[in-house]
Amino acid sequence: MNRLLFVLTLLCSGSGFAQMGFVVTISGDTLRGNLILESNEKIDRVRIKNDKSIFLSALQVKSLQIENQTYKPVTYDAKLRFMRVMQDGYLSVLAFQSSHNSFNYDGVLLLKADGQMMELPRLNFKKAMPEFIDDKPLADSIAAGFLGRAELNLIVARYNKKIEIRTAEIMKFNKAVEAGIPAVEIVQRLRNAVVERTFEGKTDALEILQDVESKLTKGETIPSYTLKALQSVLKDQSTTKDLLSDLQTALKN
Predict the structure, then answer these.
(1) Cβ distance 35 to 19 under 8 Å?
(2) pLDDT tens per residue, range 205-249
């Protein structure tokens, strides 16, 4: 059985008995002691036992750790719950108690950093998961059955890796713009001009501009054939004529 799903099935919550750990509050304080997680109908809370007991609601907690397991508060299904982090990243896999009187973390929530979430489908995984994953190659592999529920770890890892690469490229581009590299700014304006128009070859133009942008942010040379291809697909677009000329000039300097 897939390791993640096996762990989710067997691990018990830690509610009801104390275990050593620490709590990081929303104000940045770290409180250490024996922790007891208490599940309630609306808002979970944690009890920190030392010489005396301190009670904190999930509203006051940023994260907590018990026996090398990290938990964080997440609002789901009209309840603020402490969820166990099984896989972290832009897309996280979180285990939660499906019932407030259950000690088992038998629910699985998929949570994106932008707030989108979905409970892991027990049925119809091939349809629901591709709609949630905004990455076409990965979504196609899931829909085709090449990656299933048992490969959840792999799906999430691949998705997060692509997000990391995409984010790094965006950061490089922004730094290049901030540094005042003329060619990068022109490519950005060219892309905007192409996006606003509908014409044959638009997709090709955007792909070429993406390639040019990628090479510029990496400090690579733009081959002459790439510029010729761009000129070819944009030859009938009067709004881009001056920008293409500016780009050629900027690349020569």
Answers:
(1) yes
(2) 899 998 888 888 787 888 889 888 998 988 888 888 888 888 888
Q: How confident is the model at residue 8 (pLDDT cuts 50, 70, 90)?
A: very low
Distance between CA atoms of 61 and 28, rounded to whole angstroms? Answer: 9
Helix (H, G, I), strand (E, B) or coil at 205: helix
Contact 51, 43 (CB under 8 A): no
Q: What's the length of the chain?
A: 253
Question: 153 pLDDT exceeds 60?
Answer: yes
The fraction of the chain above a pLDDT of 70, given in percent, is 87
| Closest by Cα among 93, 55, 53 to 72 | 93
d(CA 171, CA 168): 5
pLDDT in tens, 99-122: 767 678 889 999 999 999 999 988
Q: Which residue type, as a one-letter code, is found at position 241?
A: K
Using CA atoms, how far apart are residues 191 and 189, in angstroms rounded to an integer? Answer: 5
pLDDT of residue 17: 67
- What residues are paired with 30 via a beta bridge? 24
Nearest to 8 by CA among 123, 97, 111: 97
Using alpha carbons, select from 237, 225, 228, 135 the residue that is nearest to residue 191: 237
Helix/strand/coil for 42: coil
Residues 162, 11: Cα–Cα separation, whole Å: 30
**What SS3 state is found at 253?**
coil
What radius of gyration do the chain's Cα atoms show? 25
CA distance 63 to 51: 22
Q: Are 99 and 44 in contact (CB under 8 A)?
A: no
